[in-house]
Amino acid sequence: MATSTPIPTSRTDIATALTDLLFTPGLELAEAADRHFAPDYRQRTDGRWDDRGEFMAHIAHLRTIVADGSVQVLDELAQGDLYADRHVIDVVKTDGSTVRTEVYLFAEFAPDGRFRRIEETTLMLEGAEADRDLGSAR
Questions:
Q1: Where are the beta strands (DSSP E) in 46-131?
Q2: Quick one: which of 50, 26, 25 has its CA closest to 37?
Q3: What are the distances in angstroms from CA 58 to CA 3, 36, 69, 133?
Q4: Residues forming a β-bridge with 51
Q5: What are the residues whose beta carbons fall under 8 Å from the beta carbon of 9, sequence distance 6 or more?
Q6: Measured between alpha carbons, how far is 127 from 53 in angstroms, rounded to an integer?
Q7: Which of 80, 83, 92, 118 has a CB 3.0–4.6 Å from the CB of 68, allowing a cystine?
Q8: Residue 29 contacts residue 59 (beta carbons within 8 Å)
Q9: Cα→Cα distances 48→8, 14, 75, 135, 136, Å
Q10: Is the pLDDT of residue 2 over 60?
Q11: What are phi and psi of 133, to 5 degrees?
């Protein structure tokens, strides 16, 4: 008899995850990450793979240079344990400059509804050339 993994009643999504990670002052990084990312989480951004520790280092760095921002989901689809979206993230950096990036994302959920894997490609729409790698900067 085959068993299937139950689909959680509550799953994360990219807008909520990014808001907690980057735009919620006072929320500890570890708590934000634990809410949305499984312990075995890994991510590929523009061809570069990171494990959870490397991802956390990336977000810790972003927290030092990002003052505010928002996420606008343009398209979103979840089916079973798979998730895909296209979103735009607007960032205001601590130096006052702004960056706008469109992201094409494909992901897999862990059984508990957190992200287990994300693969994404980014397209900078506005910003300085030096910010082109913001999606993987450390």
A1: 48-51, 66-79, 82-93, 98-109, 115-126
A2: 50
A3: 37, 16, 17, 11
A4: 42
A5: none
A6: 27
A7: 92
A8: yes
A9: 29, 19, 24, 10, 8
A10: no
A11: -100, 20
Cα–Cα distance measured from residue 69 to residue 6, given in angstroms and rounded to the nearest whole number: 35
Distances 92 to 10, 33, 120, 127 between C-alpha atoms, Å: 30, 21, 21, 10
- From the list 99, 114, 106, the residue with the least C-alpha distance to 40 is 114
Q: List pLDDT tens digits, range 95-131.
A: 999 999 999 999 999 999 999 999 999 999 999 888 8
Rounded CA separation 41/46 (Å)? 17
Residue type (1 letter), 60: A
Nearest partner of 132 among 106, 102, 104, judged by Cα: 102
- Tokens 């343009």 correspond to 74
**pTM score above 0.90:** no
Residue 4, pLDDT above cutoff 50: no
Axis crossing angle, helix 14-22 with helix 29-36, rounded to the nearest 10? 170
d(CA 91, CA 64): 12
